[in-house]
Each structure stands twice: as structure tokens, then as C-alpha cells.
Amino acid sequence: MGEFLTGSACFVLAMVALGLVRILRGPADADRIMAPQLLGTGGIAVLLLLAAATGAPAVVDVALSLALLAAFASVAFVLAKGSPAPGKADEP
Amino acid sequence: MSAALILDACLVLLVLAVAVWTIAARETFPAIAGFVSYGLLLAIVWVRLSSVDVALTEAAIGGGATGVLLLGAAARLTDRAGRRPAGIGLRIMAGALCLAITAALAFVILTLPDPAPTLAPQAVAGLPATGVGNPITAVLVAYRGIDTLLEKIVLLLAVIGVWCLTPDDSWGALPAPWGTARQDDAIVLLARLLAPVGVVVGVYIVWVGADDPGGAFQGGTILAAMWLLVMMAGLIAPLPATSRRLRRVLVAGPALFLAVAFAGFAMSGDFLSYPPAYAKWLIKLIEAALTLSIAAMVGVLVIGPAVRKR
Amino acid sequence: MSLLRDLFTVLMVSAGGFCFLAGTAGLLRFPDALTRLHALTKADNLGLGLIVLGLIAQAPGPLGALKLVAVWLLAQLAGATATQVLARAVRAEGRDSP
Predict the structure, then answer these.
(1) B67-95 b/e with 16+ CB inside 10 Å = b?
(2) B109 found inside a domain
(3) In terms of Cα–Cα distance, which of B233, B217, B224 is closest to B301?
(4) To probe the interface with A, which of C20, C30, C36, C84 has the most A CB atoms within 10 Å?
(5) Domain boundaries, chain A
(6) CA gap B171, B158 in Å, rounded
């Protein structure tokens, strides 16, 4: 069972890696920020599979933290893009 | 064994590829997307190296604070006029320096004797005296408590450093633009649903840190992320540097740690020594206070100094 | 009983892996940002959901299983919000530069 779960983790990681190629190419910034989003989900799946494969329940906590913070990069990206740059007023 | 080996090989190649891509990216935003991805991959790498505590830190910092910090910095930089790429000489120098550091690290790791020198058996042997079951927590708060104490004071100095960047006329103004940005209802919903869950998870990570991977830094960073989230959603305004409440929370953890350290003279005859009967409870108390302070410090560091009023 | 449980896990995890495959195929082949977001959500919802379902059968106890479900629910919330805000950003970008 452990071998199968580790193999599945490997497969999911490979799939996510392939997806990264497309996303990192863009063209828009919104496309690129999908990379951490996809990697977040894939990473959670990989960690859960590894936790079950190696019988290390603490690894589920790492997946839990990743899941909790999975939307952060996207939210911060949209806010940074959407709001006017705060540094503007600092310029001479 | 073979599946694990393939997984590790995939992971190494992926980490290297994302790292190279991050450095090669010419624009700021793509580089940040690469760097955040790199952090997420590192969390998996640490799990594969059986360092779940470090993986938790990487997940909490890399998934939350780093992205917000870098994206905020990028947004502040976009309008800087006359921004030029570094000259070729500077780039060669930076490259040479990185190469030298990598070579030195590789040399040290490759020339380690086999088995590598380790204090792990001693750390585990001393665990019963501290009352905690996680050797990492024991190292951080008991054996090498002085390092952790100084580290938290360094974080406080960093906060003061960031506050020093405030322009004179906006001292006491609100730090980030988020409080005034238009509210996005999807982000508001996320903040309302996620923040309470996140606070529970953060406290849980600190609590299990006594016996399993986890601890004050990981939990505090998650709490900071939740604080940042409700500020980003515009539900609460960031606290200005002049806020007494904020300052009290910032110093609470290091102050309590220092107080317990000095009380060690009276209780068991030395700086930072815990009386064995109360060791576990003192460690938990320090961890709890440090969690709040770390959350406040990380939050303040990420939102940055006040911006000039328009 | 144990064999049946393992079979269930293998089936569900394989199906989850297939969803990640489908998501990646979509990301590589779809023509624009909105359709790519659509592909991304398939990996988010179904892929992770099926893998979690399969792993529940292997969970050490009811609390361990509950934690797995919690991870999936949190990922759902994050995925839905991120997709929503990113889609809005993509639309806004499109309006700025037609």
C-alpha cells in the first residue's frame, strides 16, 4: 500500500510540474499567479499521500497549514494589482 | 523504495527548475509567483527530509506572509521612475558570491565525517527533565533557550527598524493601503469564514508543539496570516505604530521569557533554568506568550511602515 | 475486509490522480486564462476530494479522518475564493487592454 501511495504522490507531483510550465509562461500576471495556486492543491495532495504512505500523522498538519493559506497568494495578488500603488505619494 | 526514490528525484529537479526560473524571470510579479511556488515545494522537501517542524514553518511562512510581503513590496515599487536593471558587473559579482557560498556549503556537507557529529541522542535523553515530548521544542525553549530569546529580540529590533522608515509627517498614520481599499466581497467572505478556523488551527499547532511537530513560531505565523487576511479584506484597520495595545502584545512574549529567565536565578540558581517540577508549564506559558508576540511581529513586518497621507 | 479497503483506496486515489492529469491537460491546452482557471478548479475540487476520500479508508481513527476532511474543506474554500478573485482580475485586465 505504501508503495502505491508514494507512487501516486509522485504522479500528482509530476502532473502539477507539467501544469507549472504552462502557467509560468503566462502570458498575463493572473496566469502566473495560478502557479502557486495549483502547486498549493497538488502539494496538499502529495503531503496527504505521503502522510498515509509513511504513517507520519504530523505531516497532515503541514497539509492543513498549506490548505489554510492556499488562497493567500491569489488574494494578495489581486489586492496588490487592484489598489493604487501606495508608494506613489512618496515619489518626488 | 523505488517509488520514494523517483519522488525525491522529481522533487529535486522541480525545485531546481523553479529556482532557476525565479532568478531568470525579468518581471517582478512572475518572479514572486515563482518564489512562492518554490517555498511550497520546499515544504514538501523538508517533509521528505523528515524535518516536519521545518516543513510546518516553511508552509506557514511561505504560504502566508512571504507572498503578501513580496506582492506588497512589488506594488510599492511599480511606479518608481528610472528603475534600471543592475549592471553586468554587479550581476557577475552577485553570481560569483552565490557560487562561492554554494561551493562552501557543498564542501562542508560533503566532507562531514560518517556518521555526522550529532547531539540528537543527548537532546532526546534530556527530554524527561523538560516535560515536553518534542525534542525540537525542548532545544528551542530549554536547551538553547538563550538563542530563542535573542532571536525574538532581533525580531523586535526588526519591527523598530521598519517603523523607522516612516516619514516624519505620517508617524501614527495607518500603515497599509488595505484598510482603505474597496472591499471585494469574495475576500470578505473568505476572511469571515477562514479567520476563526485559522485561529483554532494556529492555537492547535502551538499546543501540539509540546509533543509533536509544531510550536510557537509556526502557530504565531498562522495567526499573523489570519490577522493579515482580515486586514486585507478591509474588515479591520491596521494598527498604527503608536498603538499602546499593539506595543504591549509585541513585547509580551520576550518580556515574559526574560522574566522567567531571571526568575531562574531565584528558583533553580541559574539564568534561564527551569525548576524541573514546573518546567513543562513554564515552557507552555512562554510558548503561549511568544505565539501572540510573534503573530504581532510578523504582521507588523508584513504590513510595513505608514505611508504618507495624501 | 482489509483487502476491500485497500481496493477502495487504490480506486479513489487513482481517480483523483486522473483528475490532476485532466487538470494539467486543460492547463496546457486551453486557450485563455478563464478556461485555464476552469481546469485548475477540477484539480482542486475533484482531484484532492477523491484522494482524500481514498485516504479516509486508511486513516488511523475517526479524528484522523475528520482532519483529512477538514483539509479538503479548507482547500475548497481557498480554491473557490482564489478562482473568483482571479477571474475578476482577468476580466478587469481584459477591459483595460482590449
Answers:
(1) bbbbbbebbbeeeeeeeeeeeeeeeeeee
(2) no
(3) B224
(4) C20
(5) 2-81
(6) 17
Residue B35 structural domain? 1-83
B19 with B131, same domain: the answer is: no
B181 and B299, same structural domain? Answer: yes
- The C-alpha atoms of residue A14 and residue B32 are separated, in whole angstroms, by 22
State whether B166 and B45 are in the same domain. Answer: no
- CA closest to B185 among chain C residues: C85
Cβ within 8 Å, pair C88-B184: yes
pTM of the model: 0.88
CB of B184 less than 8 A from some CB of C: yes
ipTM of this predicted structure: 0.86
Cell match 486513516: residue? Answer: C59
Cβ–Cβ contact B190 with C under 8 A: yes
Closest by CA position to B205, among listed C45, A60, A39:
A60
Tally of structural domains, chain B: 2
Is the minimum CB–CB distance between B112 and chain C shorter than 8 Å?
A: no
Q: Does C67 touch chain B (CB under 8 A)?
A: no
* pLDDT tens digits along A25-83: 777 777 788 888 888 889 999 999 999 988 888 899 999 999 999 888 888 888 877 64
Please indicate, yes or no, whether residues B192 and B247 belong to a single structural domain of this protein: yes
pLDDT band at residue B221 using 50, 70 and 90 as cut-offs: very high
B238-272, pLDDT tens digit by residue?
888 888 999 999 999 999 999 988 888 888 778 88
Does the pLDDT of residue B181 top 70, yes or no? no
C23–A19 CB contact, under 8 Å: yes
